[in-house]
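Example with several molecule types.
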Amino acid sequence: MTFHKHHGFRQPPWGVMVGSILALLMILALGCQAARGTPTPSAPAGEPAEVTAQPTATARPGTSPVAEAAPTPTPAPPSPTAPPPSATPTLPGDPSPTPAVLPAVRSPEEVITPGPPRFPFTITLELFVSMPEPPTYVTHAGDGSGRLFVVTKPGRIWVVENGTLRLQPFLDISNLVKSDAYEQGLFSVAFAPDYAQSGEFYVNYTARAGDGDTVVARYRVSTDPNVADPTSAETVLVIDQPAANHNGGQLQFGPDGYLYIGTGDGGRAGDPWDNAENLGVLLGKMLRIDVKGTPTYTVPADNPFVGQAGVRPEIWAYGLRNPWRFSFDRQTGDLYIADVGQGKWEEVHVQPASSRGGEHYGWDTMEGAHCFEPETGCDMSGKELPVVEYDHSLGCSITGGYVYRGSQYPQLAGTYFFADFCSGRIWGLRPENGTWRAAELLSTSYNIASFGEDEAGELYVVDLNGAILRITSAPAADQVYLPLVVQAQGADSRVAVSGRRAGGG
Ligand SMILES: [Ca+2]
Ligand SMILES: [Ca+2]
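Resulting structure tokens for the full complex:
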């Protein structure tokens, strides 16, 4: 309990806690500053925009105790490795009466008719637990214990039981985890579907060994259910990382029992190695492997590229830039992938549960629903379009969440939550009459690194500055969220909808 003595964060004096938070914020702010001046700018899941407008940055209601001190995004200088300017750049202070383009919403095959999304609820965030170090992820073990497990960037997993943070980490592998860069660290944990029996769980981190290479490793719990056995480590998969950014990092077990791994394109900007479209490498992909009953893994026989020469059979889908967060709808099995954009478009792809894999999600021929390489006239054939996208006037790095399937707030059922790390905005995405509707639900000052589910399906928001917040909701039968902008995207005609709450600020 020396850790307790030194840190005393269970019920810290406010002075200590505020001091810690300020220190953390200074570190984070310095990290941001440093990142802006480098050719490989970094945020936990993306980079600052090459041209970024943050028109609402000073107008946020901000309920966080750290809201006022949160890093204020400023226009970033053009990155030496950023793509060439678009023909239709997003300009700060653009006098156009049409507000920011966004969430673009479409049905699977055709342009939809826009209308005001009617989401029958409002949401709020309430502080659930404060963390002593930057949290990156929260989830549950599926073992009936009701505990939450919080992953932190330096390389620890913490147990929250009955709303209280336990003082001893569940797992501490900070000696193995390289978290020097903004996008490095311990990113997620996934408990095996049979965790209650096997005690097995999996972690994804960038390692000191290999100078930041991705490691997926298996661990087991000890005889103490709140402490893992650090000596149980088995390395499942190592992926060479050519740069410090775009490391992916999410692990999820699918409804099929296989382990899905999101990998980034390897980093820098514009996928200079063209990894995402190269089926011979594991970068820029969604991987699907079978980790049951083997020290490492096997490839499921029905993976889409099994048996093809020169192709890695672990690949389930490709054309991803940095799918920092993805999740399965626990009711339908649909897969929601939030892919962090380059300089202009943040996007969500939805893969139906019936998919057999093999999808090309666009990058880096496309960024969102738009040509990227080449900038115009790219070949969009055979590539999946996002169901929703937003431009960098509304943020700079998407953070995917979950479809709400809890029981406490029935009005949220079926709503997929996602957010932007830089702007703190939270959006909802819902199927409606055979198409999709998206709208902004809440504007916050948090640096939202992740969402998470507890065992009952209630949802949480992870603020990298140290807060785990619980999503709460009130029914509001006629709550209308205004889609303010409808505009065609050139030849690639698509409806773009910008969500600002009706009657809100
Ligand atoms: Ca490229
Ligand atoms: Ca895409």
